[in-house]
Design brief:
The protein is largely without helices or strands. 0% of the residues lie in helices and 9% in strands. It has a domain of 49 residues. The protein contains no helices and 2 strands. The protein is elongated. Its EC number is 3.6.1.23.
Amino acid sequence: MAENSDLLEPSPKIPKLSEEEPRSLNFLKVKKLSTNAILPSRGSSLSAGYDLSSAAEVKVPARGKALIPTDLSIAIPEDTYARIG
């Protein structure tokens, strides 16, 4: 295969944010409503979201649906996508 010198390779480095650019830090605020509540956690450092845990032992039948208590109050920052499913 012939090499084409007109093709440019993308830069392998990610540009750093300059100090003039605003940095928006959105924090997820979580409050435990009982001693059974478990704070959300990430499955790994590369996870895109947080995992929620049940605050009570509940059995959901196969192909069933149920409301599961987390005993958490969560404030989602503005301009942040949140989904529980």
